[in-house]
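Memo to structure team: turn this sequence into structure tokens by end of day. - J.P.
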Amino acid sequence: MAALTSTNRTVRFGLAAALGLGVVAGGAAIADAATGRVRTGGDHLVVRSGPGTSYAKVGRVSSGARLDIICQARGTTVKGRYGTSNLWDKIGPNRYVSDAFVYTGSDGRVAPVCKSGSTNPAPTGAIKDDYPYRGATSGVDRWNFYKGQCTSFAAWRANHNLGVPFHNYYKGVHWGNATNWDNAARAAGIPVYSTPRVGDIAVRDSGTWGHVAYVAKVNADGSFMVEEYNHVRPDTYSYRKATRGEGSHQFSEFIRFPR
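Reply from structure team:
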């Protein structure tokens, strides 16, 4: 988190005392747990299932709410009310908020490091077959795609993990088959990139129908892990490593829904 001015530090330490937080020279004492206060300027603060913006939204807390911080983990860097920070505060089982919006009396860590395994193993809270229509081989889903198809699963991920109210006519555009999704995204004003990021919808235009999948992890070598339906086996979930390209097991473009 960015350094504070001496004036701001005085204010923050004063509020820390009012909240009953332990303060030592240079910051708050790291104890078994800590307390903080949400400060967003009025908006609700989103609660995620893990320490990052690509994890599923699991709730929200109001500005001004008092939080008990169980532990803290490093995750996505966020710019907030108290500067820029990659610290995330665990406030319950699979419940994390960005420390950049939480007043704790310190710019650094005030609670223990979350132990290994205390966060979801997947960087998105996904990488599991939680698709609500698993086993279905026909019929239309709630987003107006065919059940068991790649488009239906990608629509599920957009809604469930990204909090985007996506459907087959999202933003007045007909999305249709996977091969059309990159064009539909551009028509809807949604950016499309040539390199992936966690939470993107990966698109392959080649083939009769094309293919879409959810980017669950990006590897250091530029490859990435995707979740998908109807690719390795018909109407079935798979999780696999992919690369950029035009081949039948590759993806060339990546839709990035604002979130």
